[in-house]
Structures are given as C-alpha cells and as structure tokens.
Write a structure and sequence with these properties.
The protein is α/β, with parallel strands linked by helices. The protein is built from ten helices and eleven strands. The chain has a nine-stranded mixed β-sheet, sandwiched between helices. A two-stranded antiparallel sheet has the order 5-8. The protein starts with 8 loop residues before the first strand and ends with a helix.
C-alpha cells in the first residue's frame, strides 16, 4: 500500500504595493520576487503553494479560507502603516485574527510596521529620516535568541549581525505589549521583533536584490522623495558592503514560515561577519518577556474579521 503524500503547504502573500515597471519587466512582478526568495520546493510543486492577494487594491483572503494556510507574508508598501486608509484598517483586523488563530505571520518593512500596529504597538515617521541602502543589523545581546527563535537551529552560532537592504521612512516607535526586540541598527531602534513563535517583523527587505535597490534609489530620487545625496550614500553602502547577507535572511524567514530548523548549510556554509558592539540602552528597555498572548478568543476575532470584509 502506497503511503499518502503529505499535504502541500499553503502560504498567502499579502501584497501592499503595486508592481513597478522594473519589477514587472525584470521579475514578472513582486509576487515572483517574494516566491523566489521565500519559497521552498517551488511554487506549484507538490510540496508548496503560494496564493497572492493585492490588499492595497482591496483583495483579501476569505475568512473561511484562513485556516487552510500555513503562513502569511505581508509585503512592503509606499503607503503609511500608521495611516487611516480603509484597506490598512482592514489589514490590521486580518492580522489580529491570524494572531488569535496562532497563524505564522511574517511582516516585511510596511508589513513589519502594520503587524506592530495591529498587535498593539505604535508606528510613525522615522525620527532620523529616510533609511536607504545596505545596513548592518545587530542582534540584541543578553538574550537567548536561539531559544526565542526555535525555528533557527543554530545553537550558539547565531551571528551578532547581518546586513540587509533598507528602504523606509517610517519605523516602529513602540513594540506590542508582549513582543521582544530581536535586532537594531545605527538608524533604526527596532529592526526586528517577535511575538511568541507566530509573529515576526523585519524592517529591512530580505527579498530584495541589489538591482532592485538601485532601481528604487533612481525612482525615489527622480520623484524627489529623497535628496540626491541620500541616494549616493545608499549606493556607497551597497558597494562597500558587497550587498546584503541575503542568504541568511531568506533562510531565517523560510525557517520561521515552515516552523522548522535552518542550519549553517542553508547559508552556504558560512555565517555573516559578527559584530561586538553592545545593544543600545533603548533596545534593552524595549525588550519584553516573550510570553504567549494567545487566548481562546479565536472564533470571536475571526467573526470580527468576517464582519469587516462584508
């Protein structure tokens, strides 16, 4: 008797932006950028399936389908996570529902910020202005990060820092009540946070490649969103660092979404360069105990989400 094949994993990508001309021509759209970076055995293969919802256009998964997904990814966006647009408020309601259902949610850039807002934190304009380029992100010392991140099976070998592409002018001001700050950088106090084992926010872009960064610098400069000097500095960081530690970040995200472990082999056999700087005082004050905040209210919250989409 032939053993039954395991059910295919199913993920929902919640896109909070429209495809740029460059992303469409070079990659076929941001959906393909994310699936190529975070997908496992391949979109459409027997082991995994990725569904895409353009939430910025009001396209959301149906309430009755939420339980069928193994995880959700919220993308970046040029819109404000602290804004009052109807689709942003609806996205917050969805994220609260998923959190109550203990569904794994990965938030990237805008997704990181809106996840924070949905779970009770505060976000707003970055106090230091735009952050564009390749930035070194340092993990908070004095924490058992391997224990907080059981999906990252690295023991004591977790690197002290790893470089990531940043393109944002907003940031997390206050983390959710039961969240834990995982990482910070020179310009951003909360580069990553987690709530239990089911919510992970990353301010940078694990999915971005250097060519996408350069195109964004061109667009932001041409639109006068950033000064030319900011763009030149961003290009310098990309050149001097040799680019982001993309293999590290994508493996970390894959491990989180799949609830499994990632080993050093998933990073090409070597870790990013370590750092020795201590955690800043503000990060130490922001760290909260990583306790469970889930209750038995999932049906009630799901009904609330269902009502918000009708």
């Amino acid at each position: 008797m032939t053993a039954a094949k395991p059910a295919a994993r199913r993920y929902a990508l919640l896109l909070a932006l429209w495809d740029s001309d460059y992303a469409r021509k070079a990659y076929g759209g941001y959906r393909n950028v994310f699936v190529a970076a975070l997908g496992g055995v391949g979109d459409g293969a027997e082991g995994e399936r990725w569904d895409c919802f353009r939430v910025i256009g009001g396209e959301f998964p149906a309430a009755e389908d939420l339980a069928s997904y193994d995880g959700f990814v919220v993308s970046g966006s040029p819109r404000d996570a602290h804004g009052d647009e109807p689709w942003v408020r609806r996205l917050c309601a969805l994220l609260r529902t998923l959190h109550a259902m203990r569904k794994r949610v990965l938030g990237v850039c805008f997704g990181h910020q809106v996840l924070c807002r949905a779970l009770g934190g505060r976000v707003g304009r970055a106090r230091s202005g735009w952050d564009v380029g390749v930035r070194k992100v340092t993990f908070v010392h004095g924490q058992d990060l391997a224990g907080l991140l059981p999906f990252l099976d690295v023991g004591d070998d977790l690197p002290r820092s790893a470089s990531i592409i940043e393109v944002h002018q907003d940031e997390v001001w206050e983390i959710p009540p039961t969240a834990t700050v995982l990482a910070y950088s020179e310009k951003t106090r909360v580069e990553a946070f987690a709530v239990g084992e089911h919510a992970l926010g990353i301010q940078g872009h694990p999915e971005y490649t250097v060519d996408i960064l350069h195109n964004l610098i061109d667009r932001l400069t041409d639109q006068n969103d950033i000064e030319r000097s900011v763009g030149e500095e961003a290009r310098r960081t990309a050149a001097e660092t040799g680019g982001p530690d993309r293999a590290f970040w994508t493996a970390l995200c894959k491990g989180f979404l799949r609830g499994g472990s990632r080993t050093i082999d998933d990073y090409g056999g070597s870790w990013p360069t370590t750092a020795t700087a201590p955690a800043p005082e503000v990060a130490g004050r922001a760290v909260a105990v990583a306790t469970s905040c889930f209750t038995g209210t999932a049906p009630t919250v799901q009904l609330a989400y269902r009502a918000s989409i009708n």
